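Let us work through a complete example step by step.
Step 1: write down the sequence.
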Amino acid sequence: MKNEVKIVATNRKAFHDYEIQDKLEAGIELKGTEVKAIRAGQVNLKDSYAKINRGEVFLYNSHISPYDFGGFDNHDPERPRRLLLHHQEIRRLQRQVETKGITLIPLRIYLNEKGIIKVELGLARGKRQYDKRAAIAERELRREMDLHRKVKR
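Step 2: predict the structure and record it as tokens.
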């Protein structure tokens, strides 16, 4: 058995465009060729989001490339995929998403210790342009400070 988590895809743009307030793990309902494509690393989370419809959570705009050896039974690359969460988790998310400016963003797709594909969702609030600039300036300042520490040693 594997004892570590294997990250398949991350949504790096989400960390730039959104302030992540909370994270949670969800299962994902997939077809067989989608599982094989994800294990091969053929997934993209850019511009994807999750939405609650009729008490169920769905993942939209996530692109899972068709499996090379799938044949006629291959999947639609951008179909909505149901996320698997407990009812109380969905109700809690529903209350938080109804708050103005909060959205559900997939942060990463990974294989857990048991080899099961999971999605890490983030409750996020969109950053304003000046927030993004401040974050970039802070990151550059931190980078310069680290560089000066290394030079002094």
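Step 3: interpret the result. The chain has one domain: 6-127.
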